[in-house]
Design the sequence.
């Protein structure tokens, strides 16, 4: 360590060590300034989007920075009805919630067995499932397309739900394993002494105890599934089944200046609002889950 | 609960090969049925929809399959040979490698710096303290991570717009008149960097939150000792905080690298056709168009395999080098 410190003295002479209270304040002010600038860089594009979503095309191009002369709520109506954001929104809700329930049920059950039952091949299974986290999904989508075709669920919402759920499954299992491992075994034992079956023990005793872990994964999965883009674009080319992200992309890539940009911004705002609400309500829990799950 | 007779108090430990809570009991019908249903159904679906496609992709990559014939003609490594001489694909690989090298490095440096400002950038009389109001910055910075990437891409596509975009408006407002009509995404020299900025922008907050948690996990006495020894905040950051969270940094580097190799969704929103002179074309876009626009599924799968090999090589390199460094440091500390 002493060698390291000497190197630093020569490498960073620009920051002399100050001990006085004025120096301390300078540091704090600098930190606040830097972080303030960063926050501005984050918020400005969103604020600009929200303001633009109330403008006409002409206003967007003529005066990109002024407030709209009249707040055009019509853009939201247009996006919702004409551009199809409304139906994409409902598709997204159906697909994301079904897939979320499915992956949570499957993930919790598998994680429970893999964490608390000892049997041959358990380690292999664990590796097999965690391996799913590391493969690039792009390698799988081409064959997946044909598998869904053969099963007969290509371009359908059930096909999309199944794909969403199975691709979120490895992460769900991975995350929940440690939660189930750390539940006290004595409680399960007490339940079995009281005559509860294994099934009952899981649903009435162990699953409720893993509640905080389940909640954390559910929120992370919700954000991930709501934002999913590649799977729907490849597996769901029927326009009436579009989910929000792909519908918005299709809307944005319409040719030339025929796009109603105000409505496009309105569509973007409406896509963000659900995740934003979930985020603001659960942000403590979400950030906690990120820092707990990401460190391994 | 541990008062139950005959139950030894167990020590909780994560990542042990045999988790402490696991029980080896008699296999009754109750237990077997539970294991079969709880594990059998999900794993079967997982095998069919996730693992089986990966193995199939490897096989298709050795065929000339177009996707529409019922049989696939085996052609060996011909697809791979073709890729070696395919200028467009090689350009896509090059662009992907640029993203792989630049995105994680910039994101990690930025998010680490911000995390340090948050955790010990505050005024400190006495112990080193965090910044007041740090939770506001955390909430705001994390926000882009929850916004769908496609929306981020669409928004920045508009931000970069030459005449009506936010960026050029701000720049000209600051008196930089030459940016009045500058097409950030339309100039071969800036297009890829404009994309890099967007990806970094959307990920910095996430890793900042991660690093704040890891820095807080470093024992406070170490910071205290460094302070007493006269280390400034910059030196504390470089020589205490950075080595202290080396594990998180490594994991973050791997995730970001894998993500940078993908980057499909951002480019689908900003430059779906590969950008000016294909300057932003990446491997994943090439896979997508080769498979679903040109119908050359065999060739697309070969590209997918190349992508997977790059991903694994990168992951192995980062984890391997990281471990070697950690071992050397440990030996150095003991000596």
Sequence:
């Amino acid at each position: 360590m002493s060698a390291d410190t000497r190197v630093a003295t020569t490498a960073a002479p620009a920051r002399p060590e100050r001990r006085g209270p004025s120096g301390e304040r300078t540091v704090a002010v600098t930190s606040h300034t830097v972080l303030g600038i960063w926050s501005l860089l984050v918020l400005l594009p969103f604020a600009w989007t929200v303001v633009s979503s109330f403008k006409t095309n002409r206003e967007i191009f003529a005066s990109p920075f002024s407030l709209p002369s009249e707040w055009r709520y019509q853009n939201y109506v247009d996006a919702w009805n004409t551009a199809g954001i409304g139906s994409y929104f409902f598709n997204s809700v159906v697909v994301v919630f079904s897939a979320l329930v499915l992956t949570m049920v499957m993930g919790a059950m598998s994680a429970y067995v893999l964490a608390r039952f000892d049997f041959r091949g358990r380690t292999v299974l664990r590796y097999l499932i965690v391996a799913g986290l590391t493969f690039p999904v792009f390698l799988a989508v081409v064959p997946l397309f044909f598998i869904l075709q053969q099963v007969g669920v290509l371009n359908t919402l059930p096909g999309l739900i199944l794909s969403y759920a199975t691709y979120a499954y490895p992460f769900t299992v991975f995350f929940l394993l440690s939660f189930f491992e750390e539940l006290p075994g004595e409680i399960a034992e007490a339940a079995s002494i009281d005559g509860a079956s294994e099934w009952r023990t899981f649903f009435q005793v162990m699953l409720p105890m893993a509640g905080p872990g389940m909640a954390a994964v559910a929120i992370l999965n919700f954000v991930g599934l709501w934002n999913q883009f590649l799977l729907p674009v490849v597996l769901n080319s029927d326009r009436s089944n579009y989910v929000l992200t792909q519908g918005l992309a299709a809307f944005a890539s319409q040719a030339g200046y025929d796009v109603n940009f105000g409505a496009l911004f309105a569509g973007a705002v409406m896509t963000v609002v659900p995740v934003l609400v979930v985020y603001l309500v659960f942000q403590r829990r979400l950030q906690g889950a990120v820092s707990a799950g990401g460190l391994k | 609960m541990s008062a139950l007779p005959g139950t030894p108090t167990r020590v909780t430990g994560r990542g042990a090969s045999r988790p402490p809570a696991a029980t080896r009991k008699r296999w009754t019908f109750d237990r077997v049925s539970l294991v079969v249903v709880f594990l059998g159904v999900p794993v079967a679906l997982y095998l069919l929809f996730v693992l089986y496609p990966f193995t199939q992709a490897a096989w298709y990559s050795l065929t000339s399959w177009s996707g529409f014939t019922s049989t696939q003609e085996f052609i060996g490594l011909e697809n791979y040979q073709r890729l070696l001489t395919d200028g467009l694909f090689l350009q896509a690989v090059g662009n992907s490698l640029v993203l792989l090298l630049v995105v994680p490095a910039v994101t990690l440096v930025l998010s680490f710096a911000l995390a340090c400002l948050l955790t010990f950038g505050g005024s400190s009389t006495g112990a080193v303290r965090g910044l007041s109001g740090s939770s506001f910055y955390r909430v705001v910075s994390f926000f882009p991570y929850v916004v769908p990437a496609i929306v981020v891409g669409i928004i920045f596509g508009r931000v970069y717009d030459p005449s009506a975009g936010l960026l050029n408006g701000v720049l000209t407002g600051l008196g930089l008149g030459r940016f009045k009509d500058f097409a950030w995404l339309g100039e071969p020299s800036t297009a890829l960097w404009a994309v890099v900025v967007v990806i970094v922008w959307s990920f910095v907050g996430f890793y900042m939150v991660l690093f704040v948690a890891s820095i807080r996990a470093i024992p406070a006495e170490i910071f205290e000792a460094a302070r007493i020894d006269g280390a400034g905040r910059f030196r504390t950051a470089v020589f205490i905080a950075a080595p202290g969270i080396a594990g998180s940094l490594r994991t973050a580097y791997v995730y970001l690298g894998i993500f940078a190799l993908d980057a499909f969704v951002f480019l689908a929103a900003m430059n779906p056709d590969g950008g000016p002179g294909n300057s932003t074309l990446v491997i994943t876009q090439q896979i997508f168009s080769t498979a679903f626009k040109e119908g050359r599924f065999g060739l697309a799968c070969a590209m997918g395999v190349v992508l997977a090999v790059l991903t694994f090589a990168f992951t192995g390199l980062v984890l391997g080098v990281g471990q070697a460094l950690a071992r050397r440091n440990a030996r150095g500390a003991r000596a």
Summary: The mean pLDDT of chain A is 85. The CA atoms of residues 138 and 230 of chain A lie 8 Å apart.
